[in-house]
Amino acid sequence: MQHYRNFCIIAHIDHGKSTLADRLLERTGRVSAREMTMNQILDDNPLEQERGITIKLHAIQMDYVSASGENFKLNLIDTPGHVDFSYEVSRSLSACEGALLVVDATQGVEAQTISNLFMALEQGLEIIPVINKIDLPSAVTTIDNVKKQVMDLLGCKEEDMIMASAKTGIGVDEILEAVIARIPAPKGDPKAPLRALIYDSIFDAYRGVVVNVRVFDGTLREKDKVLFMVTGQSYELDEVGVLYMQRKRTGILEAGNVGYFTAAIRKLQDTKVGDTVTLLNNPTDNPIAGFREVKPMVFSGIYPAESDDFEDLREALGKLTLNDSAISFEPESSNALGFGFRCGFLGLLHMEIVQERLEREFNQTIITTVPNVRYKVITTKNEVVWVDNPAQLPKTTMINEILEPYIRAQIIAPSEFVGTIMKLCMDRRGVMTGQTYLSADRVDLTFNMPLGEVVFDFYDKLKSSTRGYASLDYEYSDYEPGELVLMDILLNGEPVDALSSIVHRQKAHEWGKKLCIKLKELIPRQMFEVAIQASIGSKVVARESISAIRKNVLAKCYGGDISRKRKLIEKQKEGKKRMKQVGRVEIPQEAFHAVLSID
Amino acid sequence: MFGLYLHIPFCEKKCSYCDFYSIESTEHIHAFVRTLVQEIDLRSTSDIATSVFFGGGTPSLLSPADMATIISKLCNSYAIAEDAEWTMECNPGTVTLERLEAYRASGINRLSFGVQSFTASELMFLDRIHNADEADAAMSLARAAGFDNVNMDLMFAVPGQTMETLNYNLLRMLSLEPDHISAYSLIYEHGTPLYARLKKGLITPQNEEVDAEMYALVIATLTAAGYEQYEVSNFARTRKQCRHNLTYWHGDNYLALGPSAHGYIDNTRYWNHRSLSAWTSKVHEGVLPEANREALTPHEQLVELLFLTLRADGVPLAEFQSRFDIDLQSLLQPDLGHWFDAGFVIDNGITLRLTGEGYRVCDEITLKMIERVG
Q1: What is the rounded distance in angstroms from the CA atom of residue A493 to the CA atom of residue A326?
Q2: Using the beta-carbon criterion (under 8 Å), do A565 and B260 form an inter-chain contact?
Q3: A26 vs B270: CA distance, rounded Å
Q4: Residue A517: pLDDT above 60?
Q5: Domains of chain B, start order
Q6: pTM over 0.90
Q7: How far is CA B245 from the centre of its chain?
Q8: ipTM confidence score
């Protein structure tokens, strides 16, 4: 056990985490330079590579011979780099004894880095600060400031920090030596009752669920009968091993090590990240702390573009949950969109990823509605009703109070943007709760904000108004009452349920006006005039109209024109596929997202 | 039963808006006629032709002798109905009584004049080589030569045109009492000089609103004068509908000869080379001068029949049921009510037919219908 080291890398997007991981794998001979042609091995999902983010967790064991000639096994556990997955981050951190804190020498510390760092410190991890990208020419002017930020943050000395360039390989040896020297070896008793933490699980079409675990105490062997302490389910282990580039069967996994097992587990939902695995006939009485049920926070309707494809979509969502257990979905129906599903996601990024995977991996043509949060409605009879679809909000006369989820948002940005950020957050009903200067020109702001205000493009607005410099992190806090009202959109007098939203009363008029204008832009002219109205209850707060098409007919169609005309019609028909009809009005897919593009 | 189309690809001067294939040199006309006669030999059929249409280009550039040669070849090669419609397109500026009488004598019984306008500035814009008086004269000559079935083409939404000049054009055309009027909204066809000028911003097209108003004026004026609208752009006096053009719009067979001509036989469409020389050399080799052909799938046949009949005298409900096993009235149920209410469509039990208002948004209704039938 003295020769094991379990660690992870904490870094902001683009600060070089994946590149550093690649370099470590290369340096320890786990991957040859030839295999490195495909950069950034850890991110093996094409979406991850495109977005430069890690969605699912991975781990890789490396063999390392230290400068002193000793053999070590290093388990590098990767962590997802986005706020939506912070619970998963916390579980993978708790599988480690140490972390490399990677900070870009030209960018400095970002909000996400800080929140992950604090999580790591809470778990008692040893932190090795690494200043990356020191080879960039612009680092000359920024590096001293960045070093100071890191020293202030960690209370460390200058010599504790490793200067590196993952791209060129500078500092990689030093990092590996520091991992050996500074990160403590795992503690634990191989003879004690089994205590293993599930920090990730993936679905394999041939073996069912592959569970990734960190063994704290005891030993995991093939044929062992194990108990999952939260779900209460038990399984007999089929295969046990460690994680190289692929899974490597070892038959045994001892305390201190990180690896995987399979056990004919059919559904990902049967393994919960954070659960403790123990032996059925010799259980521990000390499950690993920190388990939390992951709950969806953001909801959106997902509908098949063609109503015949409803069953296909159900199947696709079912398959998707095989390797993403955080999605929830329930059938619902809408007057505008027909039959579809109300889906729950961990956050906005998670939602986008799911939508994209449905289209790319499962070839589904879908229409999605504007995301919303889950509201807690107290009725006049003092009952609690959870509402995750605005159209399902009880009648006003039945409502005593509506509560909405709040977040604690942390934003780090150059201080010149303080005014901009404060205005943006206050426009979104945010209340500032803290302001700390990390350095003379870098500020850390915290706000208490309704999540519902953040799900509408807040992150994009924050980025664009700070020229990309601000970074955001948030954690869910509590439900708080709000003066919220249901705003309906009517087209030619008919309410379109999929366009309903729950908004703050004081913002409702302006919101309704902007939404009507936006819809006017997005809904193409049709054979008939279209009246657009926004209403609260029976009161119309805004209206617009789209004039009818005056003339659309090809003047000539003789023998030589017919093929061309037929092909044009077929093409136009394809283009109209995503239009949905309510009454006699056809609504394009973008319209269901109109709220997202309002300034 | 089929229609027969012959494309005569010569013009004295090409019009800037026209995208039909033609060349401005007339020196190859005789060689062309000889080759056309050879193509007739390549395309035999035992079916009966009910219409023959000489289109162009400018068929009236053919001498009466050349025309007689072609016609006698056609009559020797095909079974042509006694009462067949024989149409020839003519430029109003190039006809004489003598020529018209000769065409009539060789069997032509319907003329189509590309009049377009009676307003000098509009004729100039369209590059027409005739003037308004020549259009008047052409009609007198046609009647004098014994033609009792004459069409005149009219164009609207021409840049610079006003409601007043359009109204003037309509009234002058009506005063000539043509049997049939084709009234087209100007199309900016890809590849024409007019299109190039539009793209360069040299001309300002009429906006949709004016185009729609002009179309409404055309429909109202012509229907009030006793012409029935039986297609988007076509109006006829009783029993003077163009039988040949109806073969296109009813999805019937038509055989086509000459460069660039499109034929449609038993659900297969073919089109000849769009080049006089390519067409000529193929025919001389003794092979069909086709650039390509496509066999329509049943669904493509359905789509074509739907949009073509909708443009014309109505979608035949029984034919959709028997040929495609489609009950249009029930498939279109969600929309028909809206269309009836808006006065776009009439259901007479036999066809779903557009009204004048409906023709105005014909392409919108077409697309919706196509969507509904899947």
Answers
A1: 38
A2: no
A3: 63
A4: yes
A5: 2-248 (3.20.20.70), 298-373 (1.10.10)
A6: no
A7: 6
A8: 0.95
Contacts of B363 in chain A (CB under 8 A): 552-554
Please write down the HEC assignment for all residues of A567-583.
Answer: HHHHHHHHHCCCCEEEC
Candidates A211, A215, A220, A222; CA nearest to A196 is A215
- Give the pLDDT score at A39: 46
Whether pLDDT at A114 is above 60? yes
- Residue B112 pairs with which residues in a beta bridge? B89, B151
Written as six digits, the tokens of B325 are 């096993």
The structure tokens 């206050």 sit at A426
Distance CA A180, CA A73 (A): 10
CB atoms within 10 A of CB A438: 17
* Sequence letter at residue A592: F
Cα A587 to Cα B9: distance, rounded to the nearest angstrom: 46
A552, A573, A585, A586: best to mutate for the B interface, most B CBs within 10 A: A552
pLDDT of A599 strictly over 70? no
H helix intervals, chain B: 29-42, 64-77, 97-105, 120-125, 132-144, 163-175, 193-199, 208-224, 243-249, 276-285, 298-311, 317-324, 328-331, 333-342, 356-360, 362-373
- Strands B48-56 and B2-8 come out as parallel
Q: Which residue, among A488, A573, A498, A486, has the nearest Cα to A338 in the 3D structure?
A: A498
Q: A252 - beta bridge partners?
A: A221
- Coil, strand, or helix at residue A289? coil
Please name the residue that has the structure tokens 């009903």: A429
Shortest Cα distance, chain A CAs vs residue B304, angstroms: 6
pLDDT of residue B365: 96
Judged by a CB distance cut-off of 8 A, whether residue A527 touches chain B is yes
Question: Residues 51..70 of B with a Cβ closer than 8 Å to A: which?
Answer: none
pLDDT classification of B81: cutoffs 50, 70, 90 = very high
pLDDT higher at A121 or B270 = B270
- A74 contacts A62 by C-beta, under 8 angstroms: yes
* Alpha carbon of B98: minimum distance to chain A alpha carbons (Å): 31
Q: Which strand (E) or helix (H) includes residue B53?
A: strand B48-56
What type of residue is A206?
A: Y
Helix (H, G, I), strand (E, B) or coil at A458: helix
Q: How far apart are CA B263 and CA B250, in angstroms?
A: 14
- In this structure, chain B runs to a length of 374
Tokens of A452: 């519902």
Band of pLDDT at residue A108, cut at 50, 70 and 90: confident
Predicted local confidence at residue A53, as pLDDT: 44
pLDDT band per the 50, 70, 90 thresholds, residue A472: confident
Phi–psi pair at A272, nearest 5 degrees: -115, 125
Within 8 A of B5 by CB-CB distance, chain A residues are 559
Tokens representing A563 are 């093929």
Are B362 and A559 in contact (CB < 8 Å)? Answer: no
Chain B touched by A568 (CB under 8 Å): no
Omega cis (within 30) before A108: no
Q: Which residue of A has its CA nearest to B215?
A: A551
Read off the amino acid at residue B235. F
CA distance B299 to B158: 37
Nearest to A372 by CA among A536, A187, A501: A501
Residues B26-47 have a mean pLDDT of: 95
Convert the pLDDT of each residue in A542-594 to its tens digit: 999 999 999 999 999 999 999 999 999 999 988 776 688 888 899 988 888 77
What pLDDT digit, counting tens, does each position of A319-369 carry?
888 777 788 999 999 988 899 999 999 888 888 888 888 988 888 989 888
Residue range B12-19: mean pLDDT, rounded: 92
